[in-house]
From TrEMBL:
It comes from Candidatus Contendobacter odensis Run_B_J11. NCBIfam families: pepcterm_hypo_1 (TIGR03016). This is TIGR03016 family PEP-CTERM system-associated outer membrane protein. Residues 271-293 are annotated as: Disordered.
Amino acid sequence: MLRVNLVQCEAVRPLLWRVVLAGSLASGLLLSSPCGAQDAGELLQEWRITPRLSVGTTYSDNIRLAPADEAEGDLVLQVDPGVSIRKQGGRLDLRLDYTAQGLLYANNTDASKINNNLLAFGTAELYQDHLFVDAYGSISQVPVTSGGRVDAGNLGLGGGGTSGGALGLINFNLGVLPGAADLFNPVGIFGNIALTGNDQTTAANFGISPSWRRNFGDWAKALLRYRYNDTGYGQSEFNSQTQAVTFNLDSGRRFSRLGWNLAYSYQQQDGQQSSNVQEGGNSNLGGGNTQQESVSGQLSYKLSDAWKLLAQGGYDNNTGYTDNQNGAHWGLGATWTPSRFYSLTGLYGLNFNEIAVQWNPSPRTALQVSRSYQGVGTSPGVYWNGSLSYKTRYSVWSASYTQEVTTVQELLGNSLTGLGPDGQPIALDGQGQIILPNGSLGLTNQSFLRKFFTTGVTYQRGRNALGFNAFSESREFQGANLNNEDSYGLGALWTWRFAPRTASFLGTGWERDDLGDDQQNDYWVSVLGLARVFSPDLGGLISYRYYQNDADPSDQGFRENRLNARLSMKF
């Protein structure tokens, strides 16, 4: 008798219902509000709801990613119903993609399960120009322990369970093949099929954030925002809730030479437990709750078109961080802008100094680099941040580097914060760069200093497209006797449309995880496949994947060959 494991469904059901409720509430408030009622009929016509279904089968000669002498093959039937909802324009922008990945195992029938995958973001204007509400949610599959068995879909270049895997397939849409982007969902093609046992769990994230904006004539403009975020996992000891309040008051247009800003922020993260010990020796003891509070002010005075004087100061008051240092900080300096393409900013003072460069020689090129010293805060020290974007007629180049003190719960909670130019939910860091919140590193309740670098190049011309991604991530834990973790890798993908409706794809990727205590993983993965669009609503795909881990210790190593065939349709 075939049985489906619903444990993961039960674990995420409360958050899933809250995501649906938040979206319904925002839409209902919008349509019933005085400013939106008169346009309700038009708004309903702008909704685009697309049900979809993928069915297929996958054969793996090592379904448990076990050592060679323990390898076990299995045939997996996949049934993946889903829905995409789009709404742009008017007073509501919404994008929601949900897939229920149904996996039925021929030999391991007791392991049959449903993986929920959700990516959703919506923003509604409830009261014209003043009251806004953002709601967002995500569900994906993530590793529990660093060093555990990881399916290729959760390697670092894939960014987690809702994306494409270690080959740099984050934008796996076979762009050279018209219509393929709406048919082929990377969920189920490259990951979340292997039976990794307790090494993988479901991560669910929900957030809602109302905000109030007010202009005081031309004198000042204010923004008050509240955010509630609920992060839950299949293993509840990692659950957390975050509440944050921010207030900003900026100078208006009447202050042509003198600019000013006042800001206040408060964030509290609750619910982190302290009972789990990771494999690899990293203990989660002492996670506890955290609080961050800061107040700051800035002044600027324009001397000329090229020079602007700067002054800023503030006070930080935080609790729950091992390396925390509370206190005041201030800095004095200037910004030099010799042309509209270049600017240099420098500040120096008590517990703070910074130098920042911006270079924008053309609309297609942007470079930002900053180096700052912070003597107070959650982890005092030197911080580097930067981003580069460059576009040509046929290619897009990008790179970014960030440093921050964070937790895995905060990374998941902050992973959906906006909509891209195409309406696609995107993850943003402080500089507006796309971040990858997941990867092969496991869950922990400890805060850590995260250093993350990513770079990518995409080239598309005619019937060919090439993509290259590379990344490096390190976690420096704030606690004694904890092993720091490093992960880095690269991947490439080539797609070729050799017939009007048919394209091939060939990719490869490598990732290394250094976990301390002589524990190391070297992942290699390659994929080869064909995709065909039979009609605008029907497509098929076949692929072969080879995946291996040269691990130390060797009992974590494995080899896997996988064949996949699927038929995808939308209605």
